[in-house]
Design brief:
This is Alpha/beta-hydrolase. The protein is of the alpha/beta class. It is built from nine helices and eight strands. The chain is globular and about 45 Å long.
Length: 306
């Protein structure tokens, strides 16, 4: 089972909103928390952030519950499957990737078309999605494959993705107090993963592109558009990760012609979640609305598919 605090966070929210809670074990030690019915026509598969160090925070169910309700209001047949995964010190790479693949295969094997699965991850959750794409394009030994059956995912949303773990790009040194993350914390979190990989010596060097998308070779993502025709990347003007995100974006766009980039002015890291960090109730951030509009369009587009 997931750690009791994570279960409590999820169940407390669902109870407060009078929604039915449902947890599902999906293999490799991972679990899925559901928002909405499991047989919905479209599923948002969500991977939360936290630097692979922090467990599920109580602001995640609140944010995802809001997305679920807004899509329901707009008449979209939609549910959310949020991955509960292992964190440090119990999650050496590539365990979280394995948990992600196991959960997605569980959805697909239950009859859900990959075209109706929309992947979304914030910060290190976005990192995991890029690990997944990298693994499909460049399979890792001892990591299971994913049962896409030549079908692409419906879409991908990367919210302030963590694409470099060394915290050394210029934006990391422009600390203005407008981002809730600091360089010291980012560097410490990155070291948790990078030190583990470094312990393998030369044998671990080939793993850099899987973990740090901004440092991948120019041709690393060749073929990625066939895996997910539509990608949305969001960022905040004042976040420390901004230079890394935009460096990655520039390279990624050379291999994917349908990438939408949304930069929110005056915003910090993962702005849609920031209100939860600070116990505010405003859900009208421009990035949040962009994500809702994006999901509505992409989900309704699948209505034309079998």
């Amino acid at each position: 089972m997931p750690p009791p605090p994570e279960i409590s966070v999820y169940e407390s929210y669902m109870k407060s909103e009078k929604l039915e809670s449902e947890m599902e074990e999906t293999g490799e030690g991972g679990h899925v928390f559901w928002f909405g019915k499991k047989d919905a026509r479209n599923v948002l598969f969500y991977i939360h952030g936290g630097g692979f160090v922090l467990p599920l925070g109580n602001f995640y169910p609140s944010f995802l519950g809001y997305l679920y309700k807004q899509l329901d209001i707009r008449g979209v047949d939609f549910s959310i499957a949020m991955l509960s995964y292992s964190v440090y010190p119990d999650a050496p790479f590539p365990l979280v990737l394995k948990q992600t693949i196991s959960a997605l295969n569980s959805l697909i094997n239950a009859g859900l078309s990959p075209q109706r699965i929309h992947l979304c991850g914030d910060s290190s959750g976005g990192n995991v999605i890029l690990q997944l794409l990298s693994h499909i394009l460049h399979p890792l030994e001892d990591v299971p494959s994913i049962a896409l059956q030549t079908q692409p995912f419906g879409s991908i949303i990367l919210m302030s993705p963590w694409v470099s773990m060394t915290a050394d790009s210029p934006s990391h040194f422009r600390e203005t107090g407008r981002d809730f993350l600091g360089r010291k914390v980012l560097k410490e979190w990155g070291a948790v993963t990078l030190d583990y990989i470094a312990s393998f010596g030369d044998a671990g060097k080939h793993l850099t592109p899987y973990l740090e998308g901004a440092k991948a070779p120019d041709d690393w993502y060749s073929g990625v558009q066939a895996l997910a025709p539509y990608v949305l990347i969001t960022a905040g003007e004042y976040e420390l990760l901004l230079d890394d995100i935009e460096s990655f974006l520039k390279m990624f766009r050379t291999r994917h012609g349908e990438v939408t980039y949304f930069l929110e002015e005056g915003a910090m890291h993962v702005s849609p979640l920031a209100d939860g960090f600070f116990n505010e109730t405003n859900r009208t951030t421009p990035t949040t609305q962009k994500i809702i509009d994006w999901l509505e369009a992409r989900c309704k587009a699948t209505e034309q598919t079998k």
